[in-house]
Amino acid sequence: MSAVQSCPICHQPSGATSTHASTMPLEDMSVRVCESCTCVFFGATVPRLEDCYRARVWGGPPRAEFAEREDGSIGRATPAARSARTAAKLHALRGALRRGSALSASVLDVGCRDGVFASAARERFRGLELAALEPWLPWRDEAVARGLNVTAAIAESVEGGSVDIVTEFDLLDHFADPVAHLQALARLMKPSGHLVLGVSSIERCAGMLHPHRLRRDAPVGLTRRSLRAACTAAGLDAQIWEDGPTLFAVCERGEVTPEAPAAGEAAALALAFEENDGRLHLKRVLAQHGPTDAALRVAGVAARGCRTPRCYAALCWDVAAACERGGRVELAAQWSAHADEGRLSQNVA
Ligand SMILES: [Zn+2]
């Protein structure tokens, strides 16, 4: 077991004194953003492969299945939002089916959990030769109860080379070495095969770095750029898109020229995390104490301190909503106007 000291994707060094990474302290751990590929990573230890799969069990739902509540807390997304995510996964699979040439494609869903996606895929696309892997036995049993063909195994341990389409959702960010895991997935495919990936986008998820407890279980936070870098390093040519808080990719084997390093993107992402944490803190204070004069003075200072338009607008909307709930309707209107205008006039708070 050793602590991760450099970017887990592109291996840019990022020691405490390195200039290669933006570092910001959070609780007892540092959150690092790779200057080159914008991968977000935590000083976590490298677990055994089986434990990366196991982390889905004790780590709770994927980051993309959380939502921000009115009081600033981060909770489980609604069943409707989760259904929409399953639909987005099916859409991604459809993309791979269109690209492939097999009449009756063989599909292997890696880490299928309780089989919700695989059984939805079986219903939507008739004629698929569908199998799944799930090492966590209670989930495996649930998936089998849905009538699925599930083997209790990890991708790294099964024989490969025979599958048209490999699908994997909400697993990649549990690996301290995502590139090695992608290589293991690529090995399962036929030479002409496709890989369909879905993983939480750390910059689009509710609370971004919240809930903090997820960090230990999901040691890597992926952005569009870092997902591409990981696929490229694994010898995969990826078409990537975002659907709400989820990054999707359809990949095939191919040599791709790595993207140039992200100038300023890492620092902007670190700033977005920091400002979002501050905004959530203020939102919780307003929920607890109501829109008192003192709380609104703090809000005014916080708003003037915002350095990104995105955080500024979100903060103003939070304050407007708190004012409305607290019956201060005129102030609510003023704060809504600030959100629209994108700046704070001097006569408020
Ligand atoms: Zn990197």
Written account of the structure:
The structure is a single chain. This protein has two domains: 49-253, Rossmann fold; 265-341. The radius of gyration is 22 Å and the shape is globular. Strands 8-7-6-9-10-13-12 form a seven-stranded mixed β-sheet, with helices on both faces. The chain has a four-stranded antiparallel β-sheet with strand order 1-2-3-11, covered by helices on one side. The chain has 349 residues and is an alpha/beta fold. It starts with 20 loop residues before the first strand and ends in an 8-residue tail after the last helix. Strand 2 (29-34) and strand 3 (40-42) form a beta hairpin. Residues 15-25 have low confidence and may be disordered. It contains eleven helices and 13 strands. 41% of the residues lie in helices and 20% in strands. Helix 2 (79-99) packs across helix 3, helix 8 packs parallel to helix 10 (309-325) and helix 9 (293-305) packs antiparallel against helix 10 (309-325). Zinc ion (ZN) binds at residues 7, 9-10, 12, 34, 36-37, 39.
Which tags fit this structure?
349 residues; Rossmann fold; binds zinc ion; 11 helices; alpha/beta; seven-stranded mixed β-sheet; globular
Query: What CATH architecture of the largest domain would you give?
Result: 3-Layer(aba) Sandwich
What is the name of the CATH superfamily of the largest domain? Answer: Vaccinia Virus protein VP39
Q: Shape from CA axes? A: globular
The level of helicity is 40-55%
Which strand-content bin applies to the residues?
15-25%
Return the domain count: 2
Q: For the residues shown, what is the average pLDDT? A: 88
How many β strands by DSSP? 13
Structural class: alpha/beta
Count of helical stretches = 11
Rg of Cα set: 22 Å
